[in-house]
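Example with several molecule types.
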Amino acid sequence: MRDETINTTRHIVRTAFPHTIPVLTGYLFMGMAFGMLLASKGYGAGWAFVMALTIYAGSGQFVAVGLMAAGFAPLTAALMTLAVNARHVFYGIPLLERFKHYGRAKWYMVFALTDETFALFCSVQPPPGMDEKKFYLAISVMDHIYWVCGCTLGGLLGSALPINTTGIDFVMTALFAVIFLEQWKVKANRTPALIGLGASILCRVVFGPQWFILAAMAVLVLVFSLGIRPLQQRMVEP
Amino acid sequence: MMASWQAAVMVAIFALATLFTRALPFLAFPASRPTPKFIVYLGRVLPFAITAMLVVYCLKDVHPGTWPHALPEVLAMAVVCGLFLWRKNSLLAIAAGTLLYMVLVQVVFV
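Resulting structure tokens for the full complex:
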């Protein structure tokens, strides 16, 4: 039954790669948009590379471009980043148990926990017999590479692309929608999914595009703590 | 333009603040201690709620009240969901939906 070839790096990367194709598309083009925007403020490809490598956050980096252009303001930089990335606080919670035995790789994977990587972690499973940690690590590293390549390339190109890429960011929306439908197939997931959808739409309408995430996070924790008993009964291991 | 050292400090702050948001749950609930039951429960229900939240997050700047009344988003989303449910192929659904969206915003609803 044990097949050793299933856990070679080559095989793991090959198995994980197809799951990352939507992220590849999105990260390359959104990264390029970031690199070009940054270059337009006077920071070249070297800066784009370093920022992609060390910050590794889509919307966070776009906000950072504005702050880099505005001048030296460390406190504003810290507060803005915390506000823009607050949603990331949620991503670790479902992964606490899974990451427990991941050793040193754990902290890299925590660092690399973007929206897209998190969404893949919640929807994709390694085939039976494959080393789970290596499979998820491969997804983390590949997504990170796409982003660094995209951002750096954008910095090198500097100005407009020869093709019009307006609207390509929809690839992320589509990816999340597909993952939503995938999760929807399991009946027990539907109540939390609907609560998440309802709370997000409601908060977007009430609080506007800038602040709705923080509000939605608070509403979700509140609703889930109130509904703990009925939900817990339904969420028992399948 | 800032001095290079100032820009470097800014980048370091962006990086550390981002890392902090991602590491917070792991720092609050270290692997050496058992995770509180409520947090384990939250971890079980949150992924499904977060996926929905991310879809809304991607569409947060859409205004159905003004032209083109979110039509590109609605049509592309219908193609993504329809194709995925019909052909059970996520890559096909994502690619077709994204291409349609690009055509809609670049050519149709200019």
